[in-house]
Amino acid sequence: MNMTEGLEDKILSDFKRPQKEFELYEKFYLGLGENAKIYLKCESKKYKKIVLAIQEVIQPSVRMNCIRCEIHCCKLYVPELSIYIAKPVGCFDLINYLLVRCDTVLPDPCYENMEKNVCPFYVNGCTLPVDCRSYLCIQYFCDKIKKELDMQLISKYLEKAKFVLNHFSVQECMI
Ligand code: SF4
Ligand code: SF4
Question: What is the pTM of this model?
């Protein structure tokens, strides 16, 4: 095997790992028992309400700026200005995935995007429902957007979202 082939294999395995992880999250969700679903529903409602509140504050700015943006933080062209970090898929860990997945069928990730350093949920914008974003995605604002936003208000919402995430019990989901 020459060096280029070795590198290609490595890149492919780097893509496959987050994909597998993401599929396991879905399996975990589908295997939840009735009590776990009740617990998850309650926590998910809290999380999504906060994300929606953040979206309401940021949407006017996002609509104005992001569509014309040449950096685009959902692509990994300018890593230091990017929220998309190639893995994990959609920037979700298990807890964050469960909180957004609850009661919502998410769009299929477009894994081919990853070969082009683009988030698998990016197709002319984020394909995830507005209240189904990961904490990592919802907490990022470039300098341009920050100037237009009430960051104090957003920080308060983010603290609340972090609280829900930090206090979520995966153990409760195993009962
Ligand atoms: S948040 Fe900033 S960097 Fe990201 S797409 Fe919008 S304008 Fe561009
Ligand atoms: S999940 Fe959505 S907001 Fe987050 S990086 Fe991907 S396209 Fe962007």
Answer: 0.88
